[in-house]
Specification:
The structure holds two protein chains of two kinds. Helix content of chain A is 47%, strand content 14%. By secondary structure, chain A is an alpha/beta fold. Chain A folds into three domains: 215 residues, 3-Layer(aba) Sandwich (Rossmann fold); 73 residues, Roll (Ubiquitin-like (UB roll)), CATH 3.10.20.600; 90 residues, Up-down Bundle (de novo design (two linked rop proteins)), CATH 1.20.1440. The radius of gyration of chain A is 21 Å and the shape is globular. The chains are: A alpha/beta, B alpha+beta.
C-alpha cells in the first residue's frame, strides 16, 4: 500500500514525516533533472486521481515543454464531490506528503511557485497546512536546488471551482466559471502562464514513485489503471471511512468486506456525478476501465427510494451549476422540476422522455465536466430502476 | 491546412475557428451568443458541431481548426442537441413576442425558426423579473435576457467600461449593475453599445427608432 501509513495516523511534525521516509523523494528528485523525473512518472503510468484519469506524466511533459520562465503548480484540494473525503484525510494527517508531491511536480516542470486551492469547508486545516508549508519551504531551500514558494488559497464554497479552469478564475479573483478549452492550463493557465493542476491524491503518489521506482508502481493494478486508490465509503454501511485498495479490486471487497455493508440496493461510485451500480452487480471492478470516479462511494440500502435519491442528487447540481452554458443552467432546472413532479405523483411517461432528451444534450454539449457528468447517475437509475420510476409516476413517492 | 466539413475538403488557415471556415465555404451554422465584434464565450451551445473521434460536441464559434479535422455540421445528433438547447432557452424566455420591441429583430426567434422550433414543450421556468426604464435611452427587461453576455463583453471590449456583470449562480444568474440597482445616467451615458448587440429584447435602445434597425428575421437565409 502506498498511502495507507500516511492516513492512519497523524504526522505531527516534519521530523515525524522524515521518520516515515519523507523527503527522500524530494532529495532524489532534486538530483535527477527534469527529464528523468518526467520519464519516471510517465513509465509508472500514473493517472489523475480526481476522476478524469488523465495520464500525469503527459500533463507534466506538456507543461515542461512550454518555454516560459514563470510556471505554476496548483494542488487541487477543492474536494467538493459528494461523499468524497479521501483528500481530506491526506491533508489532515500528512500535509507534508502533499507538499512534497507539489515540489517534485514543480521540479519536473520548472515551476517555482505553487498554490494550494483548499475548499472553504476544510478551513479548520488552514493552520496546520500553513505551518507545514513554512517548514517545507525552509527544508527545500536547505536542500539547495529547490527554491519553491507555496501559497495557500482558500475557496468560497463553490463546487464548480474544483474544475481546473474555474479554479484558476477563482485564484485570479474572478467569478468561478470554467474557461473555454483550448488553451489548456498547461499552456496558458494562471495569469496566462503554463500551469499544472493536480489533485491531492495524485500528488501524494509522486514521492512514492520517485523513491520506489516506476516498475514497483506499475506492478500494482490493472493494464490501464496502475497503482492504488483511496476510496471514501459512506451511506448505509457499518464501517464508513477511507480505504486504500489496488486499482482493479472488485466493488464487493470494498463495500462488503471492508465497509461491512449487509444490505446493498445500489452503489454510487464517484459522488453525485458518478455511475450507479445495482446491488446485485458487485463484481464490477474499481478501475478506469470499468467504474471509478474520484473515489467517493455511497451505498444505498433497500429502504431508499431511488427516484427520491435522484431528486436529491439533481438538486445538488441545480444548486452548483455556475450558469454559464445553457444545457447545464437550464437543463438542471427543468430536470429538477420534472423529478419533483414525478416524486409528487404528478408525472407522466412523457416526463421521462423529456429527462432523457435533456440529459443527452447536457452530456453532449455542456461547457465543462459538471454539466457533462451531472445526468450520469440519473440515466443509470432510469435504466436500472425503471419500475420505481413507473411506480412513482402512478402513485408518487 | 486542409480540413473536411460535411465530407468536402476545404482550405483553412492557422487559428481560424470552425465557424469562420464554415461561413467562408457557405455552410451555415446558427449562432446566438457569438458576435463578430466580440470575443467568443461559448455559452449558448447552439453552434455545436460534431468532430470525428472527438467524443463530445464542440462549439464552432470558439474552437479553432486542426489539420485533417473531420467536421460534421448537420448530423441528427448535432441538430437534436441544438434543438434541445434552444428549447431549454425558450423555456426560460418571456413569451410576449407580440408586444416585444425586438420582435422581428430577435435573433432568438430567428434561430428558433431555422431549427424548426415554434414552442418549447419543457416546463416554463421564467419568472417575471425587473423591468428597468430609468435610463433615457436603454430599456432593460431581464425576463427576456438569455444570458449570452454580449452586453458584458461589448461594454468591456468596445466601450472599455465595466458597467455590466454576471451575478448569482446557476439558474438564478442575472446580468446586473454593480449593486443590482437600476441603470441610471450616472452609471453610463449614451454609448448604448450593449443594447445594439443584444440579440433579444432584454436591452432596447429607445433612442433609436425601429426603422433604423435592420430586421434579421425573414431575411431569406432561413433553411
Amino acid at each position: 500500500m502506498i498511502l495507507k501509513k500516511y492516513i492512519t495516523r497523524k504526522t505531527e511534525s516534519l521530523d515525524a514525516y522524515r521518520a516515515l521516509g519523507g523527503l527522500t523523494a524530494l532529495q532524489k528528485a532534486a538530483g535527477m533533472g527534469r527529464k528523468n523525473i518526467i520519464d519516471e512518472i510517465k513509465k509508472s503510468q500514473l493517472r489523475g486521481r480526481a476522476g478524469a484519469g488523465f495520464p500525469t506524466g503527459f500533463k507534466l511533459e506538456m507543461a515542461e515543454q512550454v518555454q516560459e520562465p514563470e510556471k505554476f503548480v496548483i494542488c487541487n484540494a477543492d474536494e467538493g464531490e459528494v461523499g468524497t473525503f479521501k483528500d481530506r484525510e491526506l491533508l489532515k494527517n500528512c500535509p507534508y506528503l502533499v507538499l512534497e508531491g507539489m515540489m517534485i511536480a514543480g521540479l519536473a516542470v520548472g515551476a517555482r511557485q505553487g498554490y494550494m486551492y483548499l475548499r472553504t469547508e476544510y478551513s479548520y486545516l488552514i493552520d496546520d497546512i500553513r505551518r507545514a508549508i513554512e517548514e517545507m519551504e525552509e527544508e527545500a531551500l536547505s536542500l539547495g536546488k529547490c527554491d519553491f514558494r507555496l501559497e495557500l488559497f482558500v475557496g468560497a464554497g463553490a463546487y464548480i471551482c474544483g474544475e481546473e479552469t474555474a479554479l484558476i478564475e477563482s485564484i485570479e479573483q474572478r467569478r468561478g466559471e470554467p474557461r473555454l478549452k483550448p488553451p489548456y492550463p498547461t499552456n496558458s493557465g494562471l495569469f496566462g502562464k503554463p500551469t499544472l493542476i493536480i489533485n491531492v491524491e495524485t500528488l501524494s503518489n509522486l514521492p512514492w514513485i520517485i523513491v520506489n521506482g516506476s516498475e514497483a508502481f506499475s506492478s500494482i493494478g490493472t493494464e490501464m489503471s496502475k497503482g492504488t486508490k483511496l476510496f471514501s465509503v459512506s451511506g448505509d454501511v457499518r464501517r464508513p471511512g477511507v480505504y486504500e485498495l489496488p486499482l482493479g479490486t472488485s466493488l464487493r471487497v470494498l463495500v462488503i468486506d471492508k465497509a461491512c455493508a449487509n444490505d446493498v440496493k445500489a452503489v454510487q461510485i464517484g459522488g453525485a456525478s458518478g455511475r450507479i451500480v445495482a446491488g446485485d452487480d458487485l463484481e464490477r471492478l474499481l478501475c478506469f476501465e470499468d467504474v471509478l470516479g474520484a473515489g467517493g462511494v455511497v451505498v444505498f440500502n433497500s429502504s431508499r427510494n431511488m427516484v427520491e435519491m435522484m431528486r436529491e442528487n439533481m438538486a445538488f447540481f441545480l444548486h452548483e451549476s455556475c450558469g454559464k452554458c445553457i444545457p447545464c443552467r437550464e437543463g438542471n432546472y427543468v430536470i429538477n422540476r420534472l423529478l419533483s413532479r414525478i416524486c409528487d405523483g404528478d408525472g407522466s411517461e412523457g416526463d421521462v422522455t423529456m429527462i432523457r432528451e435533456i440529459a443527452a444534450s447536457m452530456g453532449d454539449s455542456s461547457l465543462c465536466g459538471l454539466g457533462i457528468s451531472a445526468p450520469t447517475g440519473l440515466l443509470d437509475t432510469l435504466q436500472l430502476f425503471e419500475p420505481e420510476f413507473r411506480e412513482a409516476i402512478s402513485a408518487g413517492v | 491546412m486542409k480540413i473536411q466539413i460535411n465530407g468536402n475538403e476545404v482550405e483553412a488557415g492557422e487559428g481560424d475557428t470552425i465557424l469562420e471556415v464554415s461561413r467562408r465555404n457557405g455552410i451555415y451554422i446558427p449562432t446566438l451568443c457569438n458576435h463578430d465584434d466580440l470575443s467568443p464565450v461559448g455559452s449558448c451551445r447552439v453552434c455545436v458541431v460534431e468532430v470525428k473521434n472527438n467524443g463530445n460536441l464542440i462549439p464552432a464559434c470558439s474552437s479553432t481548426v486542426r489539420s485533417l479535422m473531420n467536421i460534421e455540421t448537420g448530423t441528427p445528433r448535432v441538430l437534436q442537441t441544438r434543438r434541445t438547447n434552444l428549447k431549454l432557452l425558450l423555456a426560460n424566455h418571456a413569451d410576449n413576442c407580440l408586444v416585444c420591441d425586438a420582435a422581428n429583430l430577435c435573433e432568438l426567434r430567428k434561430v428558433a425558426a431555422e431549427l424548426g422550433i415554434t414552442n418549447s414543450y419543457f416546463i416554463k421556468s421564467r419568472t417575471a423579473l425587473m423591468m428597468d426604464q430609468c435610463h433615457p435611452s436603454i430599456q432593460r427587461d431581464l425576463s427576456k435576457c438569455i444570458l449570452c453576455r454580449r452586453c458584458v463583453r461589448a461594454c468591456r471590449e468596445i466601450a472599455e467600461k465595466e458597467v455590466w456583470a454576471v451575478a448569482f449562480r446557476g439558474h438564478d444568474s442575472r446580468i446586473v449593475l454593480r449593486d443590482d440597482a437600476e441603470l441610471k445616467m450616472e452609471d453610463c451615458e449614451d454609448c448604448t453599445v450593449c443594447a445594439d448587440v443584444c440579440p433579444v429584447g432584454a436591452l432596447i435602445n429607445t433612442s433609436k427608432g425601429r426603422a433604423e434597425k435592420e430586421p434579421c428575421l425573414y431575411e431569406g437565409n432561413i433553411t
